[in-house]
């Protein structure tokens, strides 16, 4: 199991997450209440993943996300799973303008679904991505009349949303009740239309698409 550091200013939620993760076999090496303490903890205890709230003391604006971005810069091998009460589109885009893996952004309501939360945590820890469906939907709505996204078919948009959440082709096929070969054709069409065909790996598959949406 992965080694984890929690950063959440709500003592109730922090303790609840710590107990849940410990019960599931994760090693929670630190649980802190502000961004500075998070950076100190990561420096002292290298871990696989940090789970961090966007808004933390002292101003409760962007301390958490700034700490997360600093972790991405200083310790790129450390996965970052951000939790937020609301969809903060600017912060979601900021997370995407850097390393192209080990990152997730979930709404706090998603934590109530333990299975979904743990699945996202596992994906981030394993080097993948995990974006809340509502975050993806709002990023997808950030389009104008000149955006190539308007050229996507409804099914291609469905596939893009699933890709952005970090699902592979097999998972997308199951979730959308189509064949895997159909998903592969849709993925190719998406990258062709978004002019992302020359990118490689997960940056092409997931994060480059979201960067494009946020550009």
TrEMBL record:
Signal peptide: none
Pfam families: GerE (PF00196), Response_reg (PF00072)
Residue stretches making up the Response regulatory domain: 3-123
Domain HTH luxR-type residues, every copy: 145-215
Name of this chain's protein: DNA-binding response regulator
GO biological process per UniProt: phosphorelay signal transduction system; regulation of DNA-templated transcription
Keywords: DNA-binding, Phosphoprotein, Transcription, Transcription regulation
Coiled-coil regions listed in the entry: none
Organism: Virgisporangium aliadipatigenens
Single GO molecular function: DNA binding
Residues found modified as 4-aspartylphosphate: 53
């Amino acid at each position: 199991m992965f080694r984890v550091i929690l950063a959440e200013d709500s003592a109730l939620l922090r303790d609840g997450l710590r107990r849940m993760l410990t019960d599931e076999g994760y090693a929670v090496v630190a649980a802190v209440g502000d961004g500075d303490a998070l950076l100190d903890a990561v420096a002292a205890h290298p871990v696989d993943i940090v789970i961090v709230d966007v808004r933390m003391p002292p101003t409760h604006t962007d301390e958490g996300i700034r700490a997360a971005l600093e972790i991405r810069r200083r310790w790129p091998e450390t996965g970052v799973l951000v939790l937020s009460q609301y969809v903060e589109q600017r912060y979601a885009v900021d997370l995407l303008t850097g390393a192209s893996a080990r990152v997730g952004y979930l709404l706090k309501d998603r934590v109530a679904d333990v299975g979904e939360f743990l699945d996202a945590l596992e994906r981030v820890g394993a080097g993948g991505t995990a974006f809340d469906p509502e975050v993806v939907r709002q990023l997808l709505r950030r389009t104008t009349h000149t955006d190539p996204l308007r050229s996507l078919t409804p099914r291609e948009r469905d596939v893009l949303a699933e890709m952005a959440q970090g699902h592979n082709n097999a998972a997308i096929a199951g979730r959308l009740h189509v064949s895997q070969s159909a998903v592969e054709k849709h993925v190719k069409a998406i990258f062709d239309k978004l002019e992302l065909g020359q990118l490689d790996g997960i940056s092409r598959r997931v994060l480059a698409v979201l960067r494009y949406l946020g550009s």
